[in-house]
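Moderator note: this is an archived Q&A kept for reference. The question asked for a predicted structure of one protein chain; the sequence and the answer are reproduced below.
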Amino acid sequence: MKSYANGAKSTAEQARLNSEARDALYEGQRRWVPHDQLEDAQASAHREALRNQDIRPEVAKANADTEANLTDTIQNDEGIQARSADRKDLDRMAKAGKEGSFSAEDEGITLASVSSPTICLSKP
């Protein structure tokens, strides 16, 4: 996951085109943005889709696909879902990681919260 300064910048990166095929780089994929950027990112993608509709249809399509696939949570096919985070949380955790002081427990992440005997035994 990577986050950017604001929703508009996150949208611009999430809606990037494949330079050779001119298709959305992440077409059809869910795209994570920080919780506090989700609404702004969706609005930005919508504006860019409308603005580019007639002049750059591939850009409009990429932004429409981005708008439809933006999310602030990640979930797998089995329903296991990550909690959302805002940009300040991410910056704080990244800084702590660089300083060597990151503690998963301080973030509410424990072995029991991320795994269980059932999950461990059900995986090949």
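Archived answer notes: The chain has one domain: 7-122.
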